[in-house]
Structure to design on (284 residues):
DNA sequence: TGATTTGTAATTGATACGATTACATATTCC
DNA sequence: GGAATATGTAATCGTATCAATTACAAATCA
């Protein structure tokens, strides 16, 4: 199977899964979710664990088991979904410590940390403004 | 040599390099830049090519050659630096096309594109507000 | 009890990316 | 012109990341 990913697609998968759950009144199994996302059920199950830990869904085992939303789509933001399943920083740090002989090398990490925090705040504020209900609305509109 | 990178550190390297150039009145060689960043000169040279293509620096060959800023630090934003050296999207797409039998599978790509654009706009607006001169100011303050 | 489902560990294959070596090309200075 | 000093660039290596997959234990329900 060909892989074209240049980075994690967990957020894309998670939004997809959550949108399906929002349209569903009963439990959806990882097998059925995997089918619409077009991936392996285990990939979905690992995603469901993170979404569950974030309090966004509930899962149950056995026949008629699966996943359901833990609260209304209106009160779930894309930021909650993103931070539940995606852990990476906005941009990478120096892999090796910069030279301490250079004034820039000494202070750059702190400045980059400040930039990272600002970028992250801005990014999260934007995703907080989009709810799962908005996503579902846009899906139905198309 | 140990690698701890979890994603591209090109932006961190680029901001570091640009800050050094902003403090320099003469050309800085890739060898000297590599020393303060603590990486290989070739890594720096590849970065310098991208920064040059974006019109942020000029390079020259031969003795006394190297890189200099192409314009004042005040008029260079971190967004210009970021988009010069970092090409990846904010988050990854589905690696395999979602099922077209499911209404969510049909429309999810378009919705995720919309989310991506909003997130990206917000992110870029924030980085546009920070100039290379701001970075240098924060470095001197420490 | 047996079918169904989640939870989870281990492995595989592809890709990304910094680090490194090697060398061609351009520029300056004597 | 020739030597020294730079950048430009191709090729390769090693490690990390990550989705995909197989296998199986644990839980749940009829």
């Amino acid at each position: 199977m060909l892989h074209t990913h240049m980075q994690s697609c967990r957020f894309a998968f998670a939004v997809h899964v959550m949108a399906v759950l929002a349209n569903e009144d009963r439990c959806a199994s990882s097998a059925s979710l995997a089918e619409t996302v077009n991936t392996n059920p285990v990939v979905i199950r690992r995603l469901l664990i993170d979404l569950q830990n974030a309090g966004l869904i509930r899962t149950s085992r056995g026949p008629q088991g699966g996943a359901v939303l833990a609260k209304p789509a209106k009160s779930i933001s894309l930021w909650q979904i993103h931070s539940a399943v995606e852990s990476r920083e906005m941009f990478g740090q120096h892999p090796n410590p910069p030279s301490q002989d250079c004034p820039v090398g000494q202070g750059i990490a702190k400045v980059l940390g400040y930039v990272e925090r600002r970028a992250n705040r801005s990014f999260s504020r934007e995703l907080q403004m989009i709810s799962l209900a908005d996503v579902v609305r846009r899906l139905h509109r198309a």
